[in-house]
Design brief:
Length: about 600
């Protein structure tokens, strides 16, 4: 058994964790932890593990990690064939690289830090039919092993290009993302120890997405936890490649194709969140808030802030320098959309820096604020603190009567917004109303009639919003929910037919109109929609006829057979008296039913 002599920096042959075969280990789930003096077989491997001393914590090393151990190897008759304790020097090696007997690799992966174990290895997991110095062929061997420590080793890119050794573990499980701002300390050295880059003592701050120095840094940082310290071995393709780097800032140049050794610490990071999902409102968290709850939509919030333009001009202050804090309800358009949306994501006590694009600010108009005028199309910056908020009660926090009342209130708020032409927000109100009365099993029989009426009314009104917003599939889904309860609901059939017509599904539209007229033969709005449908069908038939005429014409030209004459005639079917009348009506009357017909349900 050879002790590792030293480590080179060329690690292109290092295996990634994904390349290693799965090895047997201790079956923790199927058996309780070992007690001191107890022995157990590891799976069906034939490897036996006897616990001599307990370890600490719960973590165990993995294949690829660098472990430091003391061990004594003996035959079953007690004859010693190797030992690290004889010279007092523990052995450090990487698990899974064949530096020790295969069974010892497997066994160590079941050990905790400080644990001492006696492993008994069958020949297949020891030295096999060949044996070794002091070990006859096909011998069962034993190892008394103490796991002193280990360093987690990660092949970040799975190609040996960036090897990360975790020297000190970080806090929590959060890692920075590409948008976040990180504060790091590092020292970069060549293979001969020459330092070629180093941060000031206080560290260096940058956004991950912007990158810094060379690619390996950001690739490593996004794998690290706050407070984590690592050593990196970086191959040239993730450093400065075949060009190297000129001497700068008092540091020497980096020769081409240099392998770099990096000591890196992630001191802290400030999470940056894309609030709106379109990169137009960013929130950088300066101070974490309390607990896990955020204000969310519909919450009554109290905030303080300072707001300024990109040139530093402060245009508004609230809750600072003697000013009263701002109180508002989120998702009610009481403040600019960017501030509204961001506030809904904040925890109590959280401090954040917001950058708001004009689309979510004051738009293309001039805005006169308390301290300055905001020019058109201005980017805005807000430093905000969430002082307090009171969330709107969730459905599960209310009794049945309160749920019904809350649903009715949301529906009325939606109706007002619909009349004002704010269809997006109206649709949200109808959705919230349905949320309050969505569980049948919780309501009594005398309440079922109320909640059914509320649901149907909100689904219908929501469908009307979807039509206004050109969300035709959304309208179809909402109308279909109504028709699951009332298969001949005229409003639902009417609105779903409108949506089908907009998606060119004229057959489904015709079926819905037919069913609506069966339920209400004199309904004027449905009849007008039927006329519009017939006109669309006529236009569709003409397009189809033209398409087939052109298709047959192309086929005749491509034919190699001698043809005297090919004549394709597509004759329109003889119009019925009703169809002819319909065409006249479509010309004489508007083709689309009035928008005021089938208005939202106010009941």
């Amino acid at each position: 058994m050879e002790v590792e002599k030293g480590k080179g920096t060329d690690v292109s042959d290092v295996q990634g964790e994904d390349d290693l075969d799965e090895e047997p280990g201790e079956e923790i789930e199927s058996a309780p932890p070992l007690k001191v003096g107890e022995e157990r077989e590891l799976g069906n491997s034939g490897i036996k593990k006897k616990l001599l001393n307990n370890g600490i914590h719960w973590e165990t090393p993995e294949f690829g990690d660098e472990v430091t151990v003391h061990f004594v190897g003996t035959l079953l008759n007690g004859i010693k064939f190797c030992s690290t304790r004889d010279n007092g020097e523990p052995m450090t090696f990487k698990l899974g690289e064949g530096k020790v007997a295969k069974g010892l690799d497997n066994g160590i992966t079941t050990m905790k830090k400080g644990e001492r174990v006696l492993f008994t290895l069958p020949p297949d997991f020891g030295y096999g039919a060949e044996g070794r110095d002091g070990v006859p062929p096909d011998s069962i061997v034993q190892f008394d092993v103490e796991l002193l420590s280990w360093i987690t080793v990660v092949d970040i890119c799975k190609d040996g290009g960036i090897i990360k050794k975790i020297m000190e573990k970080g806090e929590r499980n959060e890692r920075p993302s590409d948008l976040d701002e990180v504060l790091v300390k590092y020292q970069v050295a060549l293979a001969d120890g020459t330092i070629v880059a180093k941060t000031p003592e206080e560290g260096y701050e940058f956004y991950v997405k912007d990158g810094h120095l060379f690619p390996a840094l950001t690739k490593a940082i996004v794998t690290m936890k706050r407070g984590e310290k690592v050593k990196l071995i970086v191959q040239p393709k993730y450093a400065f490649g075949d060009k190297g780097k000129e001497a700068t800032d008092g540091f020497p140049s980096i020769p081409p194709n240099s392998v770099l050794n990096v000591e890196l610490e992630l001191i802290s990071f400030k999470p940056v969140i894309d609030v709106t999902g379109d990169s137009k409102v960013f929130k950088k968290i300066l101070k974490e808030g309390e607990g896990a709850l955020v204000a969310n939509e519909g919450a009554a919030v109290t905030i303080s802030y300072i707001a300024w333009l990109e040139d530093g001009t402060v245009f508004e202050r609230k809750g600072v320098d003697g000013e009263q804090p701002l109180e508002f309800i989120t998702d009610e358009e009481q403040v600019i959309p960017g501030l509204d949306r961001a506030a809904a994501t904040m925890k109590k006590g959280e401090q954040a820096l917001l950058t708001v694009s004009p689309e979510y600010g004051f738009g293309s108009v001039v805005a006169e604020r308390d301290l300055a005028v905001v020019p058109p199309s201005s980017n805005l910056v807000y430093e905000v603190e969430m002082l307090d908020f009171v969330k709107e009660k969730a459905p599960w926090e209310l009794n049945n009567q309160e749920k019904i009342e809350a649903a009715g209130k949301k529906k009325e708020e939606g109706n007002i917004l619909f009349k004002d032409g704010n269809y997006q927000r109206a649709g949200k109100k109808y959705d919230k109303a349905v949320d309050y009365v969505s569980e049948d099993g919780l309501f009594q029989d005398d309440e079922q009639k109320q909640i059914k009426a509320l649901r149907i009314s909100c689904w219908l009104n929501g469908a009307a919003c979807s039509l206004k917003l050109s969300d035709f599939w959304g309208a179809i889904q909402l109308c279909s929910k109504v028709l699951d309860f009332e298969s001949h609901n005229v409003k639902a059939l009417y609105r779903r037919a409108q949506a089908y017509m907009k998606t060119s599904d004229l057959i489904s539209a015709e079926m819905d109109i037919k069913k609506a007229l069966e339920a209400d033969p004199q309904n004027r709005e449905v009849k007008l929609l039927q006329k519009t449908l017939r006109q669309l069908q006529i236009e569709s038939n003409k397009r189809d006829a033209k398409l087939f005429t052109n298709m047959f014409a192309r086929m005749s030209k491509r034919s190699s057979m001698p043809i005297k004459k090919l004549k394709v005639e597509i004759a329109e079917p003889e119009k019925s008296e009703e169809a002819a009348a319909t065409e006249r009506e479509c010309v004489a009357e508007p083709s689309t039913p009035s928008e005021d017909r089938m208005a939202v349900d106010q009941s």
